[in-house]
Amino acid sequence: MTVRIVDNADVAADAEIGDGSSIWHLAQIREGARLGRDCVVGRGAYIGTGVRLGDGCKVQNYALVYEPAQLGDGVFIGPAVVLTNDHFPRAINPDGSPKSASDWEPVGVTIERGAAIGARAVCVAPVIIGQWASVAAGAVVTKDVPAFALVAGVPARQIGWVGKAGVRLEERDGFWVCPTTGDRYEIQQGRLREAQQ
Given pLDDT bands bounded at 50, 70 and 90, which one contains residue 190? Predict the structure, then answer.
């Protein structure tokens, strides 16, 4: 396998791009970023300094992944998604001087394995999106999202559960069941987990 980087992408010399990954037109990958194997970074997307992507991640067109974000394996970032990194954004300090890198401490968004963030959603750092969770398009996430949760709205609130296939689960006989795969899940101590077969 090889890495595909189109000519007009801007990839820092010290960025690590995993085997089989593709970086498309006008994308920018900053210094110290590390992308796993088989990742796709779409047109005009931005991957910040030191950001980490696991294997098999997809970052769609014009998404902005600001440092120090951490994405697990198989994470999907939809078009125009924004992962923020500042608690108190300001261009200047109280004395009117321009803010510099030393005037603030970036905070990151962590997205765990298999989770998906829908188009134009905003995740306001610091938040953790649990494994296999789904954030609906246009949502604004301001607090942590449990594994397998489906959240939507502004601010985002849980509206259901999803399985690994990303399809909303249906409640049947005390279990949550994926209508696509038939996989069963159960709630234990307030968290959804795969049911023992």
Answer: confident
Q: Model pTM?
A: 0.95
Task: Supply the DSSP string of the chain, one letter for each residue.
Answer: ---EE-TT-EE-TT-EE-TT-EE-TT-EE-TT-EE-TT-EE-TT-EE-TT-EE-TT-EE-TT-EE-TT-EE-TT-EE-TT-EE---SS--SB-TTSPBP-GGG-----EEE-TT-EE-TT-EE-SSEEEPTT-EE-TT-EE-S-B-TTEEEETTTTEEEEEB-TTSPBPEEETTEEE-TTT--EEEEETTEEEEPP-
Instruction: Quickly list DSSP for 167-178.
Output: PBPEEETTEEE-
Name which of 1, 105, 126, 101 is nearest 55 in CA terms.
Answer: 1
Say yes or no to pLDDT of 197 above 80: no
For position 161, what pLDDT does the model report?
97
List of domains in the chain: 4-90+105-162 (2.160.10.10), 164-197 (no CATH)
Residue 1 pLDDT exceeds 80: no
Cis peptide leading into 98, omega within 30 of 0?
Answer: no
